[in-house]
Amino acid sequence: MYIGVDYHKHYSVTTMMDETGRIREQQKIRNDPKSLLAFAEALPENSTIALEATNGWYYFYELLEARCPIVLAHPLKTRAIAEARIKTDKIDSAILAHLLRTGLLPSSYIAPKNIRDTREVLRYRASLVSLRTSLKNKVHAILDKNGIRMEVSDIFGKKAIQKLRELSLRDCYRIEVDGYLRLMETLGVLIDEVNRTIERLVGASTEASLLLSIPGIGNYSALLILSEIGDIGRFPSAKKLCSYAGLVPSIRSSVEKPAMGRYKQGSKWLRWILIELSHHFKNSSPRMKDLYGRVAYKHGKNTARVAVAREMLKIIYAMLTQKRAYRRE
Asked: Parallel, antiparallel, or unpaired: how do β-strands 48-52 and 70-73 relate?
């Protein structure tokens, strides 16, 4: 049986279809663990579920992944649903079942549980750093309101923080600055804790050790790259991996001339970290410096950083497939 699931926050609508395309059953079920597990238990043997990658799919997938094969439908490529003139929950779930039955369902990669857990740790660290940056910006804003310019490169270094605590400010601003500094201290402790967790995960990964040989890559960036790539064997070529990372522009052809599109799809986390690392990588290689200079001259610095990031990912692909460390040029 082929099962299409139109998942919502509080309920799901399912369609059970046999191999001839006949709909055997459609039902609405609540998304509580008891109801979903009972639904999975009642499925015939050799059933497969098609689930669209919408908000909340993690919960559904992790609850039932051990009980039934689940195929995650790519939401942007499932045009039959997106472009349907008449949209109901039953129609959407039936289309998913039909696409699954005919082998036409565009699927998304689902990383193994250990990689999903690693991603959660990395996202947690990113959120902590983002919160700390927000607090720093608030302190900067208070200093600007009071016309204070501190002659230090980093106003959040140990000595600068002591000066911030000694500044003569009105009570309202003093309360704010002291509170933000206390929050930043707490965030610093939490970031140190998660950094130790990341360091332990990197120490247990042979592939992460390989990536650490690349100039500019540290524990966090190595683990982030690996967790976003997943199994390198699922990419038949470096070009496919670059496309997955959103580092290959789309091309729209017309009668007059082709037009280059923007980098909209792909793993935003992989694209972000590679572009962040491109500056360090560019400075470590004469060839990368030359590439950056040529592209920046013609298309600007942002495009040049993407070009370097793309070359960096090609090298990473070769390293992971050949299981070798980086060789400086």
From this structure: parallel
* Rounded CA separation 306/261 (Å): 14
Other beta carbons within 10 Å of 215: 14
CB 60 within 8 A of CB 12: yes
- Sheet bearing 11-17, strands edge to edge: 23-30, 11-17, 2-7, 48-52, 70-73
Give the integer Cα–Cα distance in Å for 111 and 227: 8
Q: Is 115 helix (H, G, I), strand (E, B) or coil?
A: helix
Rounded to the nearest 10 degrees, the angle between the axes of helix 268-283 and helix 219-229 is 140
Phi-psi region of 325 (alpha: psi -120 to 50; beta: other; left: phi over 0): beta
Beta strands in the chain, from DSSP E residues, in sequence order: 2-7, 11-17, 23-30, 48-52, 70-73, 251-252, 259-260
**Three-state secondary-structure class, residue 312:** helix
Give the DSSP letter of residue 196. Answer: H
Tally of CB atoms within 10 A around 288: 20
Contacts from 306-309 at CB under 8 Å and sequence distance 24+? 306/247, 306/263, 306/275, 306/278, 308/278, 308/281, 308/282, 309/245, 309/247, 309/271, 309/274, 309/275, 309/277, 309/278
This prediction's pTM: 0.83
Q: Which backbone phi and psi does 252 adopt, to 5 degrees?
A: -110, 110
The Cβ-side half-sphere exposure at 227, using a 13 Å CA radius, reads: 23
**pLDDT of the chain, 329 residues: tens digit per residue:** 999 999 988 999 999 999 999 999 999 999 999 999 999 999 998 999 999 888 888 899 999 988 889 999 887 777 666 566 667 888 888 999 999 999 988 888 888 999 999 999 999 999 999 999 999 999 999 999 999 988 877 888 888 898 899 899 999 999 999 999 999 999 999 999 999 999 999 999 999 999 999 999 999 999 999 999 999 999 999 999 999 999 987 555 444 554 444 555 678 899 999 999 999 999 888 899 999 999 999 999 999 999 999 999 999 999 999 999 998 76
Question: Which residues, 6 or more positions from 297, have their beta carbon under 8 angstroms from its beta carbon?
Answer: none
